[in-house]
């Protein structure tokens, strides 16, 4: 695991890069767990500099709709609670904003909220909070929140999703992403798209986070920097090969007269950039 800490325009940004360990099992949950000590470090800084007072506003960007969604919120609330008790501070109210794309199943998260609120009350006592959870649908490559309204931003395992498939991938043949067999311009196109998207992401958040606020981003990365090394893209290459086989089979079995299987094979690319 590697961490990078940046400080610019009055905001702290911590990047946590986790190498993908094949023994890890649920890798996103592992990433969330590994981020906890770093979240604590940043939240201590916020408390020490009085960045928040009566209400702590946190956003989880790319929250998804599974069991990890409220785990992140719960970890952050626990840390703020602990840090305030250690510093003899009044525990604030919490506003937890859960963001994902418009198509995310936010209803699934809402159904988990009664148990989530009940557990907070049971663990922390009647006087705790209160905590208000809301959904903020939309792309994190655009604005999501009013100016200077967030104290803390968390995003785990999301920034490798690009805003669109990069342009200029015609030479990528039947590969569905960057692959060992991809020509250099394909790597460059993915890298440029990531650069543009990530710049946009940081610009948007720099407007939304209060002065002195913090952001923590967790990424899973390749262990080898050279993308042409075997194993770098093993899973995506296997997926690409399976798609090629499926398309060939459908084409042979159904034989649509107007369907050119070569165009199908070469026109699909995945909008993911792998570090
Ligand atoms: C691998 S999941 C990670 C979910 C969760 N953060 C975790 O660590 O378990 C990536 C999530 O990012 C969301 N996502 C991708 N692009 C997004 C965008 N532009 N804006 C908001 N969410 C996005 C996806 O919908 C998906 O739920």
What is the radius of gyration? 21 Å
Helix vs. strand class: alpha/beta
What fraction of residues sit in β-strands?
A: 15-25%
Shape: elongated
Distance from first to last alpha carbon: 13 Å
Q: Which ligands, by name, code or SMILES, are bound? A: S-adenosylmethionine
**Biggest sheet: strand arrangement:** 1-2-7-6-3-4-5
Low-confidence stretches: none
Helical residues, percent: 40-55%
Question: What is the average per-residue confidence, as pLDDT, rounded to a whole number?
Answer: 84
Total of domains: 1
What does it look like?
This protein is an alpha/beta fold. It has one domain (2-267): Vaccinia Virus protein VP39 (Rossmann fold, 3-Layer(aba) Sandwich), CATH 3.40.50.150. Helices cover 41% and strands 21% of the residues. The protein is built from six helices and seven strands; from the N terminus they run ββαβαβαββαβαα. The chain has a seven-stranded mixed β-sheet. Strand 3, helix 2 and strand 4 (93-100) form a beta-alpha-beta unit. Helix 1 (27-48) packs parallel to helix 2 (67-86). It is elongated, with a radius of gyration of 21 Å. The relative contact order is 0.17. The structure holds S-adenosylmethionine (SAM).
What is this structure's SSE topology?
Layout: E1 2-8, E2 11-19, H1 27-48, E3 55-61, H2 67-86, E4 93-100, H3 106-124, E5 131-137, E6 150-156, H4 184-208, E7 209-221, H5 234-254, H6 261-267
Parallel strand pairs: 2-7, 3-4, 3-6, 4-5, 6-7
Antiparallel strand pairs: 1-2
Helix pairs in contact: 1-2
The protein binds S-adenosylmethionine (SAM).
S-adenosylmethionine is lined by residues 28, 31-32, 62-64, 68, 99-101, 104, 139-141, 156-158, 161, 163.
